[in-house]
Amino acid sequence: MPVRQLPRLMLVSRYWRSATACCPTLWTVLALHADAAVIGALDDLLNRSRRLPLSLSLTIPLASEHCLPGICTSVVRHLARIYYLGIHGRRISFCSSIFDILRQPAPNLRLLDLSPIRNRGGCAIFPLRLDDDDNTDHLLANVAPQLRFVDLGLLRLPQTPQAAISGVRELTVGLTSSSVASFADLLAQAPILETLIVKDYTSGTFLPCPPPGHRIASIEIQKTKGPALSWHLISGHEIPTLCVKQRHAATYEAVLHALADDAWQILSLTMDYGLAITAEFRAEERIRRLQTFDAWEHPTVETTCEKLMYERRCLSRIQHLTLSLDLEPVDQMSSDHLLPHLRLPALTILTLLCGASESYGQDPADAITLLDEWVLSRCSALRAPDLRSIRLAARITSSSHLARCGDRYPARIAAVSPSRLARFIALKLDNPQRRPELRVDAPSVYLLNDRAGLLGFQLWHFYLTALAEACERSLGWHDDALLKRFKSLVWPGAVMRMLRDTHLRPSSAPRVTNRATASLIQSLIIGIHGQSEHASTDYLQELRVEINTTCFVQATQDKVGSSCHAPDVPDDLPAASNNPKALVQNQKGPSVGANDASATMAENDVATLRVWLPACVVQLAAPQVMRPRSPHDAIDKEAPSARFVSRKRWW
Predict the structure, then answer these.
(1) Which residue, 70, 225, 328, 639, could crosslink 530 as a Cys pair with Cβ 3.0–4.6 Å?
(2) Residue 633 in contact with residue 536, Cβ under 8 Å?
(3) The Holliday junction resolvase Gen1 C-terminal domain covers which part of the protein (predicted)?
(4) Three-state helix/strand/coil letters over 454-516
(5) How far, in Å, CA of 137 to CA of 282, rounded?
(6) Of residues 87, 437, 121, the one with CA closest to residue 275
(7) What kind of architecture, by CATH, is found in domain 34-227?
(8) How does pLDDT run across 86-113, given as a tens digit for each residue?
(9) pLDDT tens by residue, 419-477
(10) Which residues pair with 544 in a beta bridge?
């Protein structure tokens, strides 16, 4: 069976673990939440990739941080082949076990991410020294020649020179006002450093400057304590790109002073209601970004920042505006500034952030969007005559800047109703001459199959692979009862949806499947193994049909899409077979011929899927499998009494 097919066996089989455990390519990227079950199986998960390069990301909750020594011991055994290592927690910096990892040789390590989990309210802990008992001789030694991106989280570099960061291009460290004098020494250790992120910077009167001739191009200052950095200090810095993240009030004051400075032009403004704002300014070749932390603050401070939506100096020159779709219920009653009330003559790109916001690391219980009817009725029209495109983007849930480097923290999947989006463009964009183009960042953002605009949240609007992953992580496939419930509810509905879109729609209705997908669905049902008439369905005749799992998976990929990342297929693997029995023969070895009546597939086989469907649907979708039978003939050996089959209902 091809490797590309293996990750999607979770859609059709309860025994996909036995098929995928033998394929090391599928276990080369691990993003794990270190609960009790994961910690117990960590050695087995790491060994499944064998000797292949490994990408490992571990999120350690507070309740499991006492197991960090054992976790570090397991990681050290495979550190020689790890090229991406991320360990996240709230207090992992206080554990000496982290030093055991940093002392080991890592010849293939390229990205090291020790960024902490965000605390409640966005408060940070004072950075710690990256040493223990002043013994730093073998700490971060020259054993990582390929290391390019480093995020030390709450740790600071020791004062002794470290050869491991000589090849680093992006570095995140803690730098206080007392250690500003060692900034030049830090840059001397990293001669090719391009981006520097400084966490918990406390000085308000001084910004670190690179020495002459250094190639550093970008510095980000994250300031949560001490006096605020003024715009005069920020604009006078010689670095080409400077990003300053401060509290809401300090950022708002800096933005107002930047708008009053004629030498700087505002390029973009991001207004994520209830979370953060970001303003970008440019003067010749220099770029300045003023940003707030994505943490909740006092409502009065938040309202002060949102006054920028009424600032004429801000909106008259802005070119790129980003707004959020989601508004929390506590803000929707008093918020009447959903769209700018002034004219935006220079605006060309409008970006809408999709997906639910995170408050204190948790999702809000309920949220409405900017596209809802109640909100649309209160919004003013967006007057932007030069608007060229509308982009639908998703929020990034990672708290680390290394997310874009390792691509290990995908954006949240968000669904948007196309009918509501069309009404938003038609009613709230005052641009009758030219309609802007629509850009959707798929697959993190996708449009619902909602023609009438009346459908709300439904299970089938989301990818089947994402649904299977959720059940795999939350419910557990090892539980037979949960597996039976999942197969009883999900798979019949998925098959029915495919058959309805292909066979049961009237000829005048638009088809949502192409010819290739339709040909797959036509051969979806390959046999009948039982029938039932149950009182819960008003004695509607149902047939227990066998589904061609290969056609089902391929049709799902063509019609719905997949959010799983499939690895590359080696050239020496055979092509996929459209016969599910051939798939079983490939895994079990040679078997009897196809004409042998004993060569039947077991119900619990890796490539078998049997569901209950109405007989009328089977008659329309697959009339070739319907044949006249004698009343005295049994449909299948599994169902000796074919008229009334007692089977447990789960609804």
Answers:
(1) 639
(2) no
(3) 524-626
(4) CCCCCHHHCCHHHHHHHHHHHCCCCCHHHHHHHHHHHHHHHHHHHHHHHHHCCCCCCCCCCHH
(5) 44
(6) 121
(7) Alpha-Beta Horseshoe (3.80)
(8) 998 877 766 677 877 887 888 899 999 8
(9) 667 777 776 776 656 678 888 877 667 666 544 333 333 333 334 444 445 444 444 44
(10) 530, 612
Mean pLDDT of 120-146: 53
pLDDT score recorded for residue 384:
83
Beta bridge partners of 321: 269, 350
| Per-residue pLDDT at 437 | 82
DSSP states along 359-403: BTTB--S--EETTSHHHHTTPPPB--TT--EEEEEE----SSTTH
Please provide the DSSP assignment of 238-255 as one string.
--SEEEEEE-HHHHHHHH
Measured CA to CA in angstroms, residue 86 lies from 71, 98, 408 at distances of 12, 12, 9
Output DSSP code: residue 419. Answer: H
Q: What is the CA radius of gyration of the chain?
A: 29
Question: Residue 363: its pLDDT value, please?
Answer: 39
Nearest to 523 by CA among 429, 621, 436, 446: 621
Indicate the pLDDT class of residue 628, thresholds 50, 70 and 90. Answer: low
Strands 541-547 and 445-447: unpaired
The runs of H, that is alpha helices, within 560-607 are: 580-588
Question: 239 or 581: whose pLDDT is higher?
Answer: 239
* β-bridge partners, 611: 545
Query: What's the token pair of residue 62?
Result: 């507070």
Task: Domain ranges for the chain, please list them.
Answer: 34-227, 467-625
